[in-house]
Amino acid sequence: MDAGKAVALLLDPRANHDPIAAYAALHRHGPVVRAGKSYFFVSGYAAVDAVLRDPAMEAYDARRLDSQWSDWRDNRAVALFADSMLRTNPPQHTRMRRLAAGVFTARRVSALREVIAGQVDEILNALPAYGTDLVTHLTYPLPIAVITALLGVPTADRGRFRRLAEALTAVLEVRWTEEDRRQAHAAALELEDYFTDLIGRRRAEPADDLVTALAAAHDAGGDQLTAEELMGNLVLLLVAGFETTTNLLGNGIVLLLDHPEHAARLRDDPETAPAYVEEVLRIESPVQLTERYTSRPTTLAGTDLPADAELVLLLGAANRDPLRFPEPDKFDPFRTDQAPLSFGAGAHYCLGAPLARLEAQIALPALLRRFPDLALAGRPVRRPRMNLRGWSSLPVTLRKSTP
Ligand code: HEM
């Protein structure tokens, strides 16, 4: 397959279900493949890692959006992400990231261990005996409960966020339709209204949570955090907090059910959970790609790149690079030197990585211990996404049926 066909295969919506063949084809053409005059796909581990760590590579920010799309601000979903740390560059990124890291501390995350274990217990106790869909009943509710607890979003409001985040994050995909755009815009407006109200309530009655802390940073004045940045980052933290973690949990469950010998090992020895979670992250990266732009002409892995070139960084492909991982398509939690790129690298390295890992390390063995006979009750259904790779339904039986 030539390089053009490999890219076409990757972008074909039917490949959302299986980009692996396209990744393998891209790897055969080297770490960087040109798909247009200024458009490149990067699939090699070392090349993706180098771009992510290179300060001369820029995130897709407002300046870049201005040069491509005159009325992008009219779409509130695009505008919200552009106000967040995810889509800014220094010095704005450095300022916001420092502030967010200051409130999203290791202390807050490790204090959540008990909260997570408690939530997992509660969710497992309440799983319906029949018609159990683990996406509806576990892989969404758990990360939503955790991130809303951290942010200080009231429990009663949790139910509305799955639909809103699904709609909003469509604008993080490589391709989207007019309808995706419209729904993302509507979801953004609803989330903005929601957080405007919540910020007001937390100002009146401060609590030990991220909404209070970030609103206080804005209220302190100076140039710490503008009103738009406060909103953009709160929405980012909410949706990044669960829309990705749900995929990690779902991907982990399917992989373990496909590999009963591993499910048994993890169930019997929960100490192995960190190794299992890293391998799930590697082989089925919940976020499959991100993008960067060159700020000047440069060379990447032997390929000349012009200034302002767009680079699609295929994290999911980098994680299956045969030059980095022997037998890359084999699920092997005990391979040495794991280090997948699923959380990115460099300045934008995922702020929530320790939290996402902790949730999966607690939930996966707990599920297997509670239901040793857990089995698929039908074919799981893939999410229709290229970037956010996971399952939209995961039907299971919890126990062997008795004759
Ligand atoms: C398995 C779960 C997760 C995955 C795979 C994931 C993946 C990523 C990736 C790949 C990036 C970097 C994007 C880039 O460089 O362009 C990122 C950034 C980010 N993630 Fe996560 N994430 C996960 C969970 C979380 C959680 C639980 C939170 C929050 C509680 C979170 C918050 C963020 C934030 C705020 C950023 C932006 C950091 C910056 O731009 O400086 N993520 N994530």
TrEMBL record:
Gene3D superfamilies: Cytochrome P450 (1.10.630.10). The keyword Oxidoreductase applies. PANTHER family: CYTOCHROME P450 YJIB-RELATED, P450, PUTATIVE (EUROFUNG)-RELATED. Belongs to the cytochrome P450 family. It comes from the Bacteria. This is Cytochrome P450. SUPFAM superfamilies: Cytochrome P450 (SSF48264). Pfam families: p450. Keywords: Heme, Iron, Metal-binding, Monooxygenase, Oxidoreductase.
